[in-house]
Amino acid sequence: SINGKCFDWLLISRRSCFRAGVRYYVRGIDSEGHAANFVETEQIVHYKGSKASFVQTRGSIPFFWSQRPNLKYKPKPQISKSVNHMDGFQRHFDSQIISYGKQMIVNLVNQKGSEKPLEQTFSKMVNSMANGMVRYVAFDFHKECSRMRWDRLQILLDQLAEQQDE
């Protein structure tokens, strides 16, 4: 109940059975376009007979890469040089569009250091795909929100506002 208005709020997460695994051991996609550790989360609100649903998905960056554990705190990501990334990448987003419609990609990885090549490759691949159903926004979460500056999330929300309204 908020401000005396009662409603039902449901939150459901569904984890994919494809490419499930623990952090660092399972990354990227497979040849079918299944992203590692893919999760679909649906929020459903029911109020006075009306229902609204919002679905958000998350998963590993959808191209061929790995991050093998070693003695370092954060192992360096390795992007595969021996495969055609675009085949699996295209399959991933074709499936996403069929299941969910228009896609708004929000990439929160660091845009410097060892994660920079991941962000650059992801951005380049989305641009190469040239699909009007897919939009890409990179937001360096750790840089922007360091030292608990959560108010800086407004920068991201402003970037997404038009698409969110749509």
TrEMBL record:
GO molecular function: phosphatidylinositol-3-phosphate phosphatase activity; phosphatidylinositol-4-phosphate phosphatase activity
EC number: 3.1.3.64
SAC domain residues: 1-166
Pfam family, one: Syja_N
GO biological process, one term: phosphatidylinositol dephosphorylation
Class of the enzyme per the UniProt entry, highest EC level: hydrolase
GO cellular component annotations of the record: endoplasmic reticulum
Catalytic reaction equation(s): a 1,2-diacyl-sn-glycero-3-phospho-(1D-myo-inositol-3-phosphate) + H2O = a 1,2-diacyl-sn-glycero-3-phospho-(1D-myo-inositol) + phosphate; a 1,2-diacyl-sn-glycero-3-phospho-(1D-myo-inositol 4-phosphate) + H2O = a 1,2-diacyl-sn-glycero-3-phospho-(1D-myo-inositol) + phosphate
InterPro entries (alphabetical): SAC_dom
Name of the protein described by the UniProt record: Phosphatidylinositol-3-phosphatase SAC1
Organism name: Sterrhoptilus dennistouni
